[in-house]
């Protein structure tokens, strides 16, 4: 399956099915800086408000692209 989130900064490789809990999962490029919560906890003081707002804007934009493509991100937290 080819997944195209045109205009998104996300690299989505495809979808997979977890038969143990009957959930479908999106497969993205590995985040080498960890999850958002860990990244912010570690770097929050060092980030300018301009960068923090850009991160928020980029995440919001990527979530919009996911929804426009017909997918739902159901476990979003930081």
Automatic annotation (TrEMBL):
Gene3D superfamilies listed in its UniProt record: Transferase(Phosphotransferase) domain 1
Superkingdom, taxonomy of origin: Eukaryota
GO molecular function annotation: ATP binding; protein kinase activity
Cleavable signal peptide: none
InterPro entries, sorted: Kinase-like_dom_sf, Prot_kinase_dom, Ser-Thr/Tyr_kinase_cat_dom
Pfam annotation, one family: PK_Tyr_Ser-Thr
Domain Protein kinase: 1-78
Protein name as it appears in the record: Protein kinase domain-containing protein
Gene source species: Gigaspora rosea
């Amino acid at each position: 399956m080819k997944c195209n989130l045109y205009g998104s900064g996300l690299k989505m490789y495809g979808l997979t099915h977890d038969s143990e809990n009957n959930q479908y999962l999106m497969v993205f490029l590995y985040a080498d800086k960890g999850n958002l919560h860990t990244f912010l906890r570690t770097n929050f003081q060092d980030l300018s408000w301009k960068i923090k707002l850009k991160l928020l804007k980029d995440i919001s934009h990527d979530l919009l692209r996911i929804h426009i493509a017909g997918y739902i991100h159901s476990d979003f937290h930081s």
